[in-house]
DNA sequence: GCGCTTACTGAAAGCGCATTCAGAATGACT
DNA sequence: AGTCATTCTGAATGCGCTTTCAGTAAGCGC
């Protein structure tokens, strides 16, 4: 690096012919400063294009207006939507958001928490399910504990087992159960499920809620009816293809995320099957795009941006008792055209 | 805020019974430290769950490993894809990304640059077209100049007029022209265009490239064939609806972004028109989802993640001569099923 | 004009770290 | 053993800012 000679508060003070302390007070309004002095300071700052050094500021005790957000992948519409909500309220509160994508590598998650800790971020938000390996979750706890002890705020979205930390929890189980009921009401009795790793609470809740509701109605899900695949469009495509390859014996396919459902739709189309005439498809999340698919996807709608907004608000809000606050958000079944009454 | 009593390097040094300086050197490996001392320091740091204070570090002269990214809206698939690329290379280089969404408000953009400047971010990346009002662009320059002077790095993606700063430029004009040629080759002669504000270079390049290429072929675009709307799905929907309301007299609709094309597709569908049988539709960008639409969208494919990657690389790369480096990236026409030969 | 309160102002003390500089310890040679 | 180069180590300084703390000047009543 080169000189990097920045304008400092001292330069401003000198130009305005006041002391450092007065300049600081004039700029921040932390204490009364006589009119003409204040003006001189403000003018000097303006002329010198002074920008306070956030590091010096944070070091000197002013609280740092930065929050960290960790998700799996911003380019996934689900995270993008949640992140959008977070950034909106962060922006409204004058906060800067540091966003990190782990690309589903636990090492990165830990590393990012550590960096965020080093940044003394005012809050850390973890979005989306954790990792399957309990060792990683423990390592995460170990990283988070001292942060919390040091006064840091942590909030998680859709991440169950996480320590005693503020949480925004979509009601995955109830939503999936409601979807199962809707599908049963349409007359479906033979189902297939496209799922992600069961080790993730989001998945096990959605899957469990769906399966249990079916069971209540006397409908069984055979192991062969359930395919596990990565949480991506291609994962959904692959899972659906596998199902198709072994001869699909279901009138309805439920994917635990919309993104997977999109892949499924594509596989079905390629296979010459019509949705919903030959088979119904339902998803979960209601990411914005699914409204515009053909056919528009039946899904469990989650208020994605609000998930992020609530989490950010929780993290920004004082929590005197240090109790774990949980904010549950219901999902709502939205029947669109990818599902239909089963033909008798 | 409360106590926030953090473990400091001094604590570690004391626990390891060495001096501050030695502890620092052992932890950073900036100078040789005798084996047994180093081990003691490392162990102490481990036990105390020490995390260096990034602010103190940055203040003391170590370069700060943080980059700022400003876009219009992360939840837009275009920005999400570019941001994904940025975050990938940032992560690989141990950098933390601060992402800000302006929601298309110029005040926010300026405010964010200022905050990023205060954070002494190693680089600032501006993604997407600037604002229409030249005053804002000037204000932005004024904010950026001292940053550059102070050794900061700035890179922009798809933002023409911006000062002498490293740029990654998709070839909007050429891409649109190529698309026009493809469409002409399919026999189309009557076109409609869905556009954003012409004041944005991205838009005027795409629109201009398209229009000029048509003109070369002797095909005129009447003002009534061009509708301007916001850069969103709903903008595209509204623009298409307007066109439809006045009686669409075109065999092919070109939208300057895929996101707008998605809205257009929806409006067309609602209006009972079939794509591509009644009308062809083409977009620009090739955001991931358009492959899965029905029909899959014909579009100009831009390597979105690479746009971000290149920009980040430019910003991370030393630029001794301080010359403006421009990295152009070509778009490629991808014909899918939303366009067809015009029926005679 | 004196004492007292109130309103500002400035000098100085850190915040936590990297780093310089001087000094101590070690080793290699004569 | 004595000299000198080499390798480590620690005390001290400063990064830019906020914030005490100890004033100084102004305002007021008498």
TrEMBL record, chains A, B:
Q: Which residues form a coiled coil?
A: none
**What's the domain of life for this entry?**
Bacteria
Spell out where the chain crosses the membrane. Answer: none
SUPFAM superfamilies, per database record: lambda repressor-like DNA-binding domains (SSF47413), Periplasmic binding protein-like I (SSF53822)
- Record-linked InterPro entries: HTH_LacI (IPR000843), LacI/GalR-like_sensor (IPR046335), Lambda_DNA-bd_dom_sf (IPR010982), Peripla_BP_I (IPR028082)
Give every HTH lacI-type domain span: 7-61
Question: Which PROSITE patterns does its entry note?
Answer: HTH_LACI_1, HTH_LACI_2
Could you list this entry's UniProt keywords, alphabetically sorted. Answer: DNA-binding, Transcription, Transcription regulation
GO molecular function terms noted in the UniProt entry: DNA-binding transcription factor activity; transcription cis-regulatory region binding
Q: What is the name listed in the Swiss-Prot or TrEMBL entry for this protein?
A: LacI family transcriptional regulator
Its source organism is: Planosporangium mesophilum
